[in-house]
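Entry 12.
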Amino acid sequence: MTAVTNDAIRKDWDTYFMDIAYMVSTRSRCPRRHVGAVLVQGKKLLGTAYNGAPMGAHDCLEAGCMIAEEVEVKSVDGKDQVVRKQRCIRTIHAEQNLLLFTDRADREGSVVYVTDQPCWTCANMLANSGVQEIVYHRAYPKDSEKVYALMAQQGIAFRQVEHYAPPAQALMDVTQ
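Predicted 3D structure (C-alpha cells):
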C-alpha cells in the first residue's frame, strides 16, 4: 500500500508566513492600506502586528485619515526634482507595532514578513532592530530606492516574494 502525502499542496515557508501576515492585516481599519507583519525566528512565529491608530484613539474609519504631505528633493539625471508624498499620520505602521510588542532578544537574527515593502521610517527602525531579513509582497515605490540602499548597507536581506497570491479574504485595493 502506497502512502499518500500532501507535500504537493503543502505551502512553502514564505507563502505560509506571508499568508499569516495578510490575515493579520485584516484587523486594520485603515481605508487606504491594510498592512500586516509577523516576526519569525527559525520557523517559529513570535509576534504579529497590523497598522492602526494607537489603542483607545479614534482610527481613520471613525475620524478620517490625517494626511500630511512631505516634500523630498531627488536628483534625476543630474537635475533636482521635487517629489511630493502624501502619508496618513494617524496610524502606527504594522512594522512599528511589531517592534513595540516584541522583545529585542527575539528579534536578533529573525525574519520579518510584511505585506508591504516598508516605508523609509519603518526601514530605519527595522535596520536597528536586530532582524536579519525582511520579506515583503507589495512594492511601495515612494521609498523603494533608498530603502533598498539602506538594507544593502546594513547587510539585511531584503526581498520581495514573487508569484504569490494573498488569501482571497485578505485582498484589498490599495491607495498609493
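Annotation: The longest strand covers residues 67-76. The chain has a mean pLDDT of 92.
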